[in-house]
Amino acid sequence: MQVMSPRTAWPLRPTSCQPERAGGAARRRQRDRGDGRGSGHHRRGLPAYERAGRRWLLAYRAAGRRPHRIDASGAAGSRATLAAYDGLTQIPHRGPQAALTVAGTVSGWDEALKVSREMTGKTLPLARLLADAIDYAQNGTPVTASQAHATASKFDELKAIPGFAETWLVDGKPPQVGSRFYQPAMATTLTRLAEEGLDSFYRGPLAEVLAHGMETLGLPVTLADLNAHAARRTTPLKLEHQQGEIFNHAPPTQGLVSLAILGITDRLNMAEADDADTLHRIVEATKLAFGLRDAHITDPRALKTDVQKLLDPAALQALADRVDDSRAAPWGTGKGPGDTVWMGVMDSSGLAVSFIQSLYHEFGSGVVLPDTGIVWQNRGASFSLDPAHLLALAPGKQPFHTLNPAAARLKDGRVMVYGSMGGDGQPQTQAALFTRYVVQGVPLQESITRPRWLLGRTWGQTSDTLKLEGRFSPETVARLRALGHEVELFPDFSEAMGHAGAIVRHPNGLFEGAFDPRSNGAAAGF
Predict the structure, then answer these.
(1) Distance CA 444, CA 127 (A)
(2) What is the rounded CA–CA span in Å between residue 510 and residue 505?
(3) What's the pLDDT at 49?
(4) Torsion 148-149-152-154 (CA) sign
(5) How many CA atoms lie within 13 Å of 216's alpha carbon, on the beta-carbon side?
(6) pLDDT for 343
(7) What was the pLDDT predicted at 56?
């Protein structure tokens, strides 16, 4: 099954529940894969392959050992020193100085192919896997309202950034909804990868091209930095929940936050809670989980705490005891936005994948390397220029990441992969989805469609209020304000709440997928 929420049209047919038998219009393209079920949410209206970003993945069988975890995130370049940013109070979010970490996405693809080969004994040829993306880049994709709006809203901020106008604008203007959008330079780059292999991005002819472009534009990343990068397989975090096992990513991601929220609320009465109580308890748990994040999450080599122990029952109970059902607690500030794609896939053999990759802000740093079509991410902007800070900038150090794809094996036999884009909103959306569907018994699609909330910030937002979609009842809004929450009302279906997706494999072999109506989504089985 595949559920997608891209910013462009994708050739997928909507579905909500599919049996294990493959079939339908998608069979021709998927005949080499066997039965497939997938879900995904694209933040931008273009094939995900154009992004020089970061990638994380969980892959596992429906029953068995802990999932494989791939961390493909890149580290700060060798020229990204505190001295290089002397005179600044914070790292810029746009331009060459913002493009300061190695792009790890392509290494993640390569490692995922290795995992696939180990788990299934086979993989499709790389040329076949990239063929559709090359075709989209060369022959165009339709511009969605989301892409047009994002480009227009960031036009003044990004139009002068090297390579942005040539890549993202049409005749110097944002593209029009419904027009065809071409990426010929990206098609050429993807073709090179298909011919030279994915490692060419780091240690081959393509790496030489990238390094030359970075040198020309003044990025603090070098050829030696590309050469040194490799995706890593590490152990995911695990939460023992009343409903089953939940997995997520370890630092430098905020997977700890997502699991801590669910671990705290697992000790509260969520099954019978109404909207106001559900939202209040999850928001209060979120504040406590953000406290853990800000105190502990950094480059894994610099960790001073075993973060898995923060998910021990006693530690979670101590946090749950701090939740006051009668009053909202004060809190700090959010971490900011995210330009992200989440995807999930399941097949009839029981293999399940929860995947995420991102540019961080909309269009990342805005910098497009010459002759490649590759826009470089700006995740390094989350570093601090305070040398005493937990996230202090240093060459070779991994920055903090909001990305955290999730997976669960439930005690009743269901297997679930789920996730969302949305910066601070990712763990909150995961908590809303899991609580509604697994704990409160709400149907999967309805769990995503129901009104959501956001404490803090996501892309395009700067305030740290509790943001509610307009579809919450006036009574719920009034109760939350009476509890002390600083409530801000948003449109009924707001992209600020993220784009969520999920797939569930039921014990009887049926697959169920759900996508987000806040974006250009679909669910498909093939």
Answers:
(1) 35
(2) 6
(3) 34
(4) negative
(5) 13
(6) 84
(7) 62
Residue 42's pLDDT is what?
37
Tell me if residue 435 is catalytic.
Answer: no
- What whole-number distance in Å separates Cα of residue 361 and Cα of residue 87? 23
Give the pLDDT of residue 340: 73
At a CB cut-off of 8 Å and minimum separation 6, what does 345 contact?
1, 2, 36, 37, 38, 39, 351, 352, 353, 355, 417, 503
Query: Which pair of structure tokens corresponds to residue 122?
Result: 């086979």
The CA-atom distances, in angstroms, between 459 and each of 292, 396, 405, 462 are 23, 27, 18, 8
Q: How far separated are the first and last CA of the chain, in Å rounded? A: 6
CB 257 within 8 A of CB 404: yes
Q: Which of 168, 184, 207, 230 is nearest to 367 (CA)?
A: 168
Q: Which of 340, 372, 429, 435 is catalytic?
A: 340
pLDDT on residue 7: 38
Q: CB-based contacts of 199: which residues, under 8 Å, 6+ apart?
A: 110
pLDDT at residue number 68: 87
- Pairing relationship of beta strands 511-514 and 522-525 according to DSSP bridges: unpaired
Q: What is the pTM of this model?
A: 0.88
DSSP codes of every residue in 362-429:
TTTT--B-TTT-PEEP-GGGGSBS-TTSTTB--TTPPPP-----EEEEETTS-EEEEEE--TTHHHHH
Q: Which residues of the chain have pLDDT under 50?
A: 5-51
**3-state secondary structure (DSSP) of residue 351:** strand
User: What 3-state DSSP class applies to 408?
Assistant: strand
- Interstrand relation of 237-241 and 466-469 (parallel, antiparallel or unpaired): unpaired
The per-residue pLDDT for 517 is 93
Q: For residue 156, give both structure tokens.
A: 């003044």
